[in-house]
Write a structure and sequence with these properties.
Elements (H helix, E strand, L loop, with lengths): L1 E5 L9 H14 L4 E5 L22 H11 L3 E4 L4 H12 L5 E3 L4 H9 L3 H13 L3 E4 L2 H9 L5 E3 L23 E5 L9 H4 L6 E5 L5 H7 L4 E4 L3 H10 L2 E4 L8 H8 L4 E3 L5 H4 L6 E3 L3 H8 L4 H9 L3 H13 L6 H15 L1
Helix pairs in contact: 1-14, 2-3, 4-5, 10-13
């Protein structure tokens, strides 16, 4: 099966959406599916990351059509609700093509935090966006329930996985810091709710891995916190493995793939009881979720690192890819492939 995935989130951005899509592509290839991406690359843009994980590309209708038809997809999936996502959605509706979508980022809450615009307005827009698709894929049971209560329909599951070969506990970084080490990782921005972690009275050292617009402000406000900047690849893995507890203070992530990455490194998770942590941690002895984040951090210290690693080993990207492909296989194949072949056929006859 040839699958085209449209996404506004793409390299060089470092976030859960990009990691999920690249991992999906690798695993899908082993299952006989070829995934190509329609991304902001090659389009002019506003030159800023207005929202986390979203490059504000300025696609044009003709170029979008050309890229879709050159890909000859048998199925189309729209991963984000940015300009690329809206443009591909419009193309599919004009050509009466079935497509699926996924709900991966809480843009209504993000926009509300940054602008004061009521989240209800954002959800009204997103309901309209996703209603046109044949299925909206979500990663967790609690997110499905929440979106259903907000009026979203045709909801299906697409779970997440973790690369347990890359993320492993074998080579922890040597951090000359007072233990225990409580570590947060990700984009350093207001919507990640990092201050809920940084303001805690905890023993040892608080560490932040990542970069973003709030880093300088938070570094000034919390001089005792160690900010290590962005880490990737084996360097990222070794830092996650060196932490005693991974702290995930976000209230707005729909899943939080980094939780699984930390667990694969043998590091227990502390988080608030919200969508994502509730589904990943639940009542498993691999971390702690609590409205009192400090209490969760201290309880997580008692968790078995071996149990964390074993939990992650059961959550492969292959299983995630198989579920994703199954969702698409159940739909009517895209007619783009047939239409482009007809055009090619007419050209050959005319030649």
């Amino acid at each position: 099966m040839r699958i085209l995935v449209a996404t506004d989130a793409w390299h060089p951005q470092v976030n859960g959406v990009v990691r999920t899509l690249t991992s999906l592509q690798r695993s899908a290839a082993g299952l006989g599916a070829e995934i190509t991406f329609l991304t902001p690359e090659g389009f002019p843009s506003l030159g800023v990351l207005t929202y986390p994980g979203l490059r504000m590309a300025l696609p044009n209708r003709r170029e979008i059509a050309q890229r879709i038809e050159e890909a000859e997809p048998e199925a189309i999936h729209i991963a984000t609700e940015g300009p690329i996502g809206w443009a591909v959605r419009s193309y599919c509706l004009r050509h009466k093509l079935a497509f699926t979508t996924s709900y991966t980022t809480r843009f209504p809450e993000y926009v509300s935090v940054r602008t004061g615009l009521p989240a209800s307005v954002g959800y009204w827009i997103l309901r309209r966006f996703h209603a046109a698709g044949a299925m909206t894929m979500v990663a967790t049971v609690s997110l499905r329930q929440e979106l259903a209560e907000r009026g979203f329909r045709k909801l299906g599951f697409w779970t997440r996985g973790v690369d347990t070969e890359l993320f492993n506990p074998d080579h922890p970084a040597e951090l000359d810091l007072l233990r225990p080490i409580f570590m947060a990782m990700g984009r350093v921005a207001v919507e990640k709710n990092l201050e809920a972690f940084l303001s805690l009275d905890l023993p040892g050292t608080k560490v932040v891995v990542g970069d973003g617009p709030q880093r300088a402000e938070l570094a000034r406000k919390y001089p005792n916190v160690v900010f290590l900047g962005e880490k990737t690849g084996q360097d990222l893995t070794s830092h996650l493995a060196a932490a005693d507890v991974f702290v995930f203070p976000s209230l707005t992530d729909t899943f939080g793939v980094v939780q699984l990455e930390a667990l694969a490194c043998g590091t227990p998770v502390a988080a608030f009881p919200v969508t994502g942590p509730k589904d990943v941690i639940s009542d498993h002895p691999i971390g702690a979720i609590d409205d009192d984040l400090r209490s969760a951090c201290l309880r997580a210290l008692t968790m078995s690192r071996a149990a964390c690693r074993n939990f992650a080993l059961q959550r492969s990207w292959e299983n995630s890819a198989r579920q994703f492909i199954g969702n698409l296989s159940a739909l009517q194949p895209s007619r783009v492939l047939r239409s482009t072949r007809r055009v090619a056929g007419r050209s050959a006859v005319q030649g």
